[in-house]
Amino acid sequence: MNNNGNHRTIAPLKNVSLCTLALERAMGRKQHLPGIVEFHGPSGFGKTFAASFAMNEYNAVLIEAKSTWTRKAILVNVARELGIAPGHTMYEITEQVSERLALSGRPLIVDEMDHIVNQGAVEVIRDIYEGSHAPVLLIGEENLPRKLQQWERFHGRILDFIAAAPADMEDARILAEFYCPKIELSDDLLASLAEAAAGSIRRICVNLALIEETALSVGKKVVDLGAWTSFKKGFWTGQTTERRFS
Question: How far apart are CA 48 and CA 8, in angstroms?
């Protein structure tokens, strides 16, 4: 995975770097320090992609929590990612998971941690951490740090809270090279696109697809802001269009 084109192209994105640095901090901590780190930010900032990158980079165990998961479902999914046939009781699975993580030295990444908090199941993650002392990276929305404050015993085991950065023109340029290879985009267009996307990687990608499709449909291989404005397309910002009645 480390040698494929996707890895090399996307690695420089700011939030990929921030996410991997967060995990590295937990992995390289001194023995007496807590080993849980948290990475948070708005939807669309590329946190899940960054988590996948970190998983491949460090052979981490990655789960993406669902809103319907119970405490046992959390444990079962961690066990399955570790290649373990889960036991029958939560106690058994907790012991299995903790032992395997401790022996393997692999870190654990929990994406969509907000769902686990909303279910009141954060102690399941703490049990795994206490039983294994494995590095743990939590990923969630921008209010996750505030939500975790109500769980004092859990909150006290967090080494650091790290905020995702809004995407900028440099991120847009990297994404354009990867997702928009058939055309060349000018700096003024990329800067305008990043501003319109309001920091969202997802919106940048949606707009890159729109730009490429539009440019190729009219036979243009180089697009600057003036050309894009002349197409009268605008950027997708996530805002709904109001219906007008005459």
Answer: 17
Ordered by start, the domain boundaries in the chain are 5-163, 169-231
pLDDT at position 147 over 60: yes
Q: Is the pLDDT of residue 5 over 50?
A: no
- Residue whose pair of structure tokens reads 């444990």 in the numeric block: 75
Contact indicator for 131, 102 with CB cutoff of 8 Å:
yes
Domain 5-163 listed as CATH 3.40.50.300:
yes
CA distance 31 to 171: 36
Long-range contacts of range 8-13, CB-CB < 8 Å, 24 or more positions apart?
Answer: 9/174, 9/177, 9/178, 10/49, 10/53, 10/174, 10/175, 10/178, 11/53, 12/170, 12/174, 13/46, 13/49, 13/50, 13/167, 13/171, 13/174, 13/175, 13/201
The neighbour count for residue 121, using CB atoms within 10 Å, is 19
Q: 112 and 40 in contact (C-beta within 8 Å)?
A: no
Instruction: Name the pairing type of β-strands 158-163 and 36-40.
Output: parallel
Q: Cβ distance 118 to 144 under 8 Å? A: no
Overall fold of domain 169-231: Helicase, Ruva Protein; domain 3 (1.10.8)
Largest CA distance in the chain: 70
At 105-134, the pLDDT tens digits run 999 999 999 999 999 999 999 999 999 999
* Helical spans, DSSP H, in 105-186: 113-118, 122-132, 144-148, 152-155, 169-179
pLDDT, tens only, 39-98:
999 999 999 999 999 999 999 999 999 999 999 999 999 999 999 999 999 999 999 999
Distance from C-alpha of 113 to C-alpha of 118, rounded to nearest angstrom: 9
